[in-house]
Amino acid sequence: MRRRETLTKSQNERLPQVRLACPDITRSCDLARAFADLVRHRRGYLLLEWIRQAEQDAPKPMRGFAGFLRQDLDAVTAGLTLPWSSGVVEGHVNH
Predict the structure, then answer these.
(1) CA geometry: angle 67, 61, 68, nearest 5 deg
(2) Three-state secondary structure readout of the chain
(3) Burial class (CB within 10 angstroms; exposed 0-12, middle 13-18, buried 19+) of 20
(4) pLDDT over threshold 70, residue 92
(5) For 24-83, how does the pLDDT look when each residue is reduced to its tens digit (9 = 90+)?
(6) 95 pLDDT band (50/70/90 cuts)?
(7) 0.85 cut: is pTM over it?
(8) Can you give the C-alpha Rg of the chain in angstroms?
(9) Segment 88-93 long-range contacts (CB within 8 Å, at least 24 positions apart)
């Protein structure tokens, strides 16, 4: 799931073969990359569309993940949009 530009030459050569061999891997990979982009670039406004796509044609585990996100849509959208984070507090609690 690393960014394509960080893959080794061997990994870049193998990836298309794996994607062709298994449509579920292909769809999961595409959705996971799109979700990572939402997180990295704080594009919470695109979350609902991502959830709809995942619920429509993703493999079952990813559909389940999308369903969990939908259950708390406002909070997840805020987390992917707003600059504030409870990460430091969570780190201390779990330390």
Answers:
(1) 20
(2) CCCHHHCCHHHHHHHHHHHHHCHHHHHHHHHHHHHHHHHHCCCHHHHHHHHHHHHHHCCHHHHHHHHHHHHCHHHHHHHCCCCCCCHHHHHHHHC
(3) exposed
(4) no
(5) 999 999 999 999 999 999 999 999 999 999 999 999 999 999 999 999 999 999 999 988
(6) low
(7) no
(8) 16
(9) none
**Given the structure tokens 């990813």, which residue do they identify?**
62
What is the residue type of 43?
R
Residue 88 has pLDDT above 90, yes or no: no
Residues in the chain: 95
